[in-house]
Amino acid sequence: MRSGNCYTFLQGYQIYVKGANSEDSRVWIELRRNEVFLEDAIVGVGDTFVYSNNSTEILNLTVETIYGGANGVLVKFSPVYQYLDPKLPMPQTPVNPPASSSDNNSSIPPVFENQAEGFDLPIFLLSIGAVFFDYWRFCGSI
Predict the structure, then answer these.
(1) How buried is residue 72: exposed, middle or buried, by Cβ count under 10 Å (0-12/13-18/19+)?
(2) Residue whose C-alpha is closest to residue 79's, from 61, 57, 53, 58
């Protein structure tokens, strides 16, 4: 995630990267649900942020890496776990496969979309891999 951006999870939970410092390896994150503030924390690389609601763990994420660059700061969280809050309605955002003109098979179950809109994980992973490859190629030969 880029500093200043947010990621929306199921059931309306949103994690915001309010600020990050790659030199100190710390990031300020804020958790909201449907735009209502829930909790914030400043965590470092390797630290875990856990949000619980009435003793039920909802979100658990660890800061893996903070990248600083000319275009801002990127924060990588891994692993990230979200547990559904049983007190809230279950997410219902089915994404149906495109209908075929030859047949319409209604026995195919709907697929639930868990990825944030506008976030392309394969492109992100390829970009991170390219950064590590360039680092290894240029700095590893010294």
Answers:
(1) middle
(2) 61
